[in-house]
């Protein structure tokens, strides 16, 4: 490679030889310049030194006086020699005004005339001369010596040969030559490296080959069908091939001009001037779509600027545009499949269709459904529609808003689409009289808003037409075409299936909710033992089997019950109704809570046996229940639960606790007994009964839910039951995942001033004493009007207890919402109402009691039984 470089046949070789010659010339020039500079410096130094010595000696004290002495040589010669030796000059000569020497290094020259020019010095000037004397080339200076009067009394000349001054420079010349040789060697080595790199880059090509390659590259550059531009760092166009001239319509003198002065559009010119990186950016230049790629040239140390390529992609853009439209439509259909019908809600599904279409397909979209569809029923053609959804790129469009009831005129596209079941396109609404006939004023507003084209597509699900979807266009100037009509039909077809499914679900859900609502209590019965508030929240989807009830019992007592049937749907609601009815019936027997739950457990077991999977009906997979009885006279509350969460008790002092009741098994399992717990409740205590949907869901466990319930009760000490319900439910979502039943009951007390009781001996004579005591008590209560009937009722009941029961016998009067009469004894024999014959002596007592009392009955206690009767207060 080195031989190839030295040979000179290649470009690298020629460059190498040329660089070596240039370096050699530079070295020679440097040596010559240095020699000349040394000579100049020597002359200058000799002149300066001679002048300094001559002026110093001429102005030295005693020089002028010595010239006037009888023998100037004797005085001045020693001084001149001392000065010459001290300063290094070759001679110091003192002469008179005639040029006769008084001093000289060679004494034989004293007394002779000075060789040189002295006239300017006699006139008071200084003379500098370069001469060649007996000692060689020298520089001599002549200066005047002035006396005290300022007249020239003599002359002093000092001189030095240049050889003595330039000796140091001569000594440096070999070093200079050596440095030049070293510089030549280094430059040659560097040139060799550069030439080697150039040789590698040019691949050993000679000038002819390089010229031919350049010509080929230039031909290719101007022949390719892609524009190429090279722009310098200052924004000036350095090169543009023929294709770039054609695509950008550049002027002939475009090169060397700034890109902002070439008449290009602002966007394209700004890109070329910025030099930023661009990849396949599309720019509209006149009627061409150009794909522009641009890269800077200084990424790897190159010169500042950028290289830009241009490609005409007008036709390719049109083809790719159609492909992009097709891909976008496929994506829209896919999104419709996964984004429409996410919920079983008719209105929500219609909104999903409208939101999907805007702005990807239309600028505005509306969905109108028959009212019957919104309520879950089958559509009734010919009736009015209701706008279920409306979406658009802006909110101020003059279209009918969502919720409006609309009746389309027969000539409108929507009405024709509903009648024929076919989709319709109105490409130009301004020239469509049938559409404008719907509402002339609103139609003018729509046209003025810029909406100019629509597509009306019926929502068909099988043979049912559920409504119509309308797509409106305003931003894009082109009207809807047949391809867009096909896409609209596909979108609406998918949405129609989801809307029909939501309609069917709505119908089934409405039926289940209706059944459930009919089975739940609509109003609470009147009673005076508890102040009660309740809430029931249905689940997000379906209906459940949660229920609650408030049951007035005898003796002013009240029973509270909450229950939950596992599962959702009609079967759970129906089972809940059966259990609620059973609790009503069992409570009329005045059974303790544990016995009532035992009967309920047996009933659930029979239901499971009757409804086997072979019949196609679902069995009861689980049910829970909590039953509580509160007595306002004794303030005692007895409770039992079957697999149900424990109740919460908020006491009047603000403390909250969850009552530790024995946990019985869920209903239907059988085999295990239930236990009743009894406790005394202070007045104004709040007893909170609930189902598990209040304290447990998918996002939190039951312990966290119980903690939240406790916090809600602690924050509302002394609050009313209604306020307590509101505070507790504020912590729940609007639509919980499971049904929620909640009862808050604040206890009241039936005070001693409203209760009267006596012990009655088992003697017939005691009946009259009872009547007298009752009359006095009723007078004190202001109930004299009830004295006769009350005496009669108590006479019959006490007489029966004395005759058929066992003592001790007790009588109690309670003044509550009604007047309650109670007679207790230790016998468990229950009296029966019968019709006595005309010849029977007895059997008419209970008949009279039943006729005089509003209600009567028997309840059993651990000590016996109680027969009671109620009379309405006047």
TrEMBL record:
GO CC, alphabetical: plasma membrane
Q: Name one GO molecular function term.
A: ATP binding
Report domain PPM-type phosphatase positions.
527-747
What the entry lists under CDD domains is as follows: HATPase_RsbW-like (cd16936), PDC1_HK_sensor (cd18773)
- Domain (GAF) spans 341-509
Q: Which SMART domains match?
A: GAF, PP2C_SIG
Q: Name one Pfam family in it.
A: GAF
Superkingdom, according to UniProt?
A: Bacteria
UniProt membrane topology term: Multi-pass membrane protein
Q: A Gene Ontology biological process annotation?
A: phosphorelay signal transduction system
Keywords tagged on the record: ATP-binding, Cell membrane, Hydrolase, Kinase, Membrane, Nucleotide-binding, Phosphoprotein, Transferase, Transmembrane, Transmembrane helix, Two-component regulatory system
Listed transmembrane segments: 173-194
Localization, per the record, is:
Cell membrane
The name under which this protein is listed is: GAF domain-containing protein
What is the organism of origin for this protein? Streptomyces dangxiongensis
Q: What is the lineage of its organism?
A: Bacteria, Bacillati, Actinomycetota, Actinomycetes, Kitasatosporales
């Amino acid at each position: 490679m080195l031989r190839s470089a030295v040979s000179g046949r290649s470009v690298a070789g020629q460059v190498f030889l040329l660089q070596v010659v240039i370096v050699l010339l530079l070295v020679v020039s440097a040596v010559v310049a240095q020699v000349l500079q040394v000579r100049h410096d020597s002359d200058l130094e000799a002149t300066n030194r001679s002048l300094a010595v001559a002026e110093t000696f001429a102005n030295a004290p005693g020089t002028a006086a010595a010239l006037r002495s009888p023998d100037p040589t004797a005085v001045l010669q020693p001084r001149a020699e001392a000065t010459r030796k001290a300063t290094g000059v070759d001679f110091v000569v003192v002469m008179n005004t005639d040029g006769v020497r008084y001093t000289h290094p060679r004494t034989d020259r004293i007394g002779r005339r000075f060789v040189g020019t002295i006239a300017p010095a006699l006139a008071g000037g200084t003379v500098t001369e370069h001469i060649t004397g007996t000692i060689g080339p020298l520089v001599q200076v002549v200066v005047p010596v002035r006396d005290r009067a300022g007249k020239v009394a003599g002359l002093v000349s000092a001189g030095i040969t240049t050889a003595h001054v330039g000796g140091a420079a001569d000594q440096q010349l070999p070093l200079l030559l050596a440095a030049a040789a070293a510089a030549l060697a280094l430059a040659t080595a560097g040139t060799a490296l550069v030439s080697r790199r150039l040789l590698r880059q040019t691949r050993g090509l000679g000038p002819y080959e390089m010229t031919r390659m350049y010509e080929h590259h230039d031909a290719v550059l101007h022949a390719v069908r892609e524009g190429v531009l090279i722009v310098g760092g200052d924004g000036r166009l350095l090169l543009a091939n023929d294709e770039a001239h054609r695509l950008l319509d550049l002027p002939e003198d475009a090169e060397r001009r700034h890109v902002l002065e070439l008449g290009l559009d602002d966007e394209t010119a700004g890109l070329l001037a910025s030099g930023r990186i661009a990849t396949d950016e599309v720019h509209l230049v006149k009627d061409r779509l150009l794909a522009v790629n641009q890269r800077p040239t200084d990424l790897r140390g190159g010169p500042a600027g950028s290289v830009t390529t241009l490609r005409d992609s007008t036709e390719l853009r049109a083809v790719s545009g159609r492909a992009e439209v097709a891909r976008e439509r496929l994506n829209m259909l896919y999104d419709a499949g996964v984004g429409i019908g996410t919920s079983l809600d008719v209105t929500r599904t219609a909104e999903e269709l409208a939101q999907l279409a805007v702005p990807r397909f239309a600028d505005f979209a509306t969905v109108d459904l028959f009212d019957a569809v919104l309520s879950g029923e089958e559509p009734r053609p010919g009736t009015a529609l209701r706008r279920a959804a409306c979406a658009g790129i802006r909110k101020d469009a003059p279209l009918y808003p969502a919720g409006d009831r609309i009746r389309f005129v027969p000539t409108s596209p929507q009405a024709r689409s509903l009648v024929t079941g076919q989709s319709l396109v109105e490409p130009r609404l301004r020239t469509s009289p049938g559409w404008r006939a719907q509402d002339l004023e609103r139609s003018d507003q729509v046209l003025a808003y810029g909406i100019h084209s629509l597509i009306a597509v019926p929502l068909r699900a099988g043979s049912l037409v559920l409504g119509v979807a309308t797509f409106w266009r305003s931003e894009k100037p082109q009207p809807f075409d047949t391809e867009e009509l096909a896409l609209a039909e596909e979108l609406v077809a998918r949405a129609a299936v989801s809307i029909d499914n939501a309609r069917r679900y709505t119908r089934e859900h409405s039926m289940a909710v209706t059944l459930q609502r009919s089975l739940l209590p609509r109003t609470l019965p009147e009673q005076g033992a508890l102040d009660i508030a309740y809430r029931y929240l249905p689940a997000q989807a379906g209906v459940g089997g949660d229920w609650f009830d408030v049951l007035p019992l005898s003796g002013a007592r009240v029973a509270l019950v909450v229950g939950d049937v596992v599962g959702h749907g009609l079967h759970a609601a129906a089972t809940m109704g059966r259990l609620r009815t059973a609790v009503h019936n069992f409570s009329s027997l005045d059974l303790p809570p544990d016995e009532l739950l035992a009967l309920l457990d047996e009933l659930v077991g029979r239901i499971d046996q009757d409804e086997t999977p072979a019949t196609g009906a679902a069995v009861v997979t689980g049910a829970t229940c909590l039953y509580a009885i509160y007595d306002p006279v004794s303030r005692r509350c007895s409770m039992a639960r079957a697999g149900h969460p424990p109740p919460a008790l908020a006491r009047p002092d603000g403390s909250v606790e969850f009552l530790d009741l024995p946990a019985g098994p869920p209903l239907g399992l059988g085999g295990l007994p239930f236990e009743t717990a009894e406790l005394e409740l202070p007045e104004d205590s709040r007893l909170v009964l609930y189902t598990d949907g209040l304290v447990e869901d998918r996002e939190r466990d039951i312990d966290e839910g119980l903690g939240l319930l406790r916090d809600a009760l602690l924050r509302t000490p002394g609050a009313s039951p209604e306020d307590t319900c509101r505070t507790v439910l504020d912590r729940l979502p609007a639509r919980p995942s499971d049904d929620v039943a909640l009862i808050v009951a604040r206890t009241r007390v039936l005070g001693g001033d409203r209760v009267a009781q006596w012990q009655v001996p088992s003697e017939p004579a005691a009946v009259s004493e009872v009547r007298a005591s009752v009359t006095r008590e009723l007078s004190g209560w202001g109930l004299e009007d009830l004295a006769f009937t009350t005496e009669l009722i108590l006479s019959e009941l006490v007489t029966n207890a004395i005759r058929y029961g066992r003592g001790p016998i007790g009588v109690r009067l309670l003044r509550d919402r009604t007047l309650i009469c109670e007679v207790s004894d230790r016998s468990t024999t229950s009296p029966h109402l019968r019709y006595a014959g005309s010849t029977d002596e007895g059997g008419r007592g209970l008949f009279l009691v039943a006729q005089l009392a509003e209600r009567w009955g028997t309840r059993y206690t651990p000590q016996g039984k109680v027969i009671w009767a109620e009379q309405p207060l006047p």
